[in-house]
């Protein structure tokens, strides 16, 4: 017998209805039930940051967050990127900071939250802010450049 229960999630400024088991993660709900595959399943244990999404404007690891705990909260994935996250997407492309792209959504959403708090970060602050997000292609220098570029051009 399925233990899945109805759940309403607000994702990218729209309401979505799904069924989720009590132990289902937000990542499973977003990717597997709702099709927001921009949130990547990397390590699936909280170590890489590839699954990062914004919940009430704060970056969270969707693989460590229970879907049912997100009812009534505002979730943003890379598909709903706006403001700073949109400016960061352009800056990542311009700076050549996207290689395979697997880490990129998590990097951008983490950086977007950082720029909301610190609109003009130093390179060291960017490195510290992104230290929990791993890039297996090792493109860190260009990623930092992209965030600084977005900050210089006025995002958010
Ligand atoms: S997939 Fe969530 S931190 Fe790696
Ligand atoms: S661009 Fe490939 S993991 Fe970062």
Number of domains: 2
Report low-confidence residues grouped into runs of 5 or more.
none
Rg to the nearest angstrom?
A: 15 Å
Helix content: 25-40%
Write the SSE topology.
Blueprint: E1 5-11, E2 14-20, H1 26-33, E3 52-55, E4 58-61, E5 74-76, H2 84-95, H3 104-117, H4 123-129, H5 140-152
The structure holds FE2/S2 (inorganic) cluster (FES) (2 copies).
Task: Tag the structure with descriptive keywords.
alpha+beta, DNA polymerase, domain 1, five-stranded mixed sheet, 156 residues, 2 domains, binds FE2/S2 (inorganic) cluster
Explain the overall architecture:
The chain has two domains: 5-79, Beta-grasp domain (Ubiquitin-like (UB roll)), CATH 3.10.20; 81-152, [2Fe-2S]-binding domain (DNA polymerase, domain 1), CATH 1.10.150.120. The chain is built from five helices and five strands, in the order ββαβββαααα. It has helices at 26-33, 84-95, 104-117, 123-129, 140-152; strands spanning 5-11, 14-20, 52-55, 58-61, 74-76. The protein has a five-stranded mixed sheet with strand order 2-1-5-3-4, sandwiched between helices. It is elongated, with a radius of gyration of 15 Å. The N and C termini lie far apart (47 Å). The mean pLDDT is 96. The chain binds FE2/S2 (inorganic) cluster (2 copies). One FE2/S2 (inorganic) cluster binds at residues 41-44, 46-51, 61, 63.
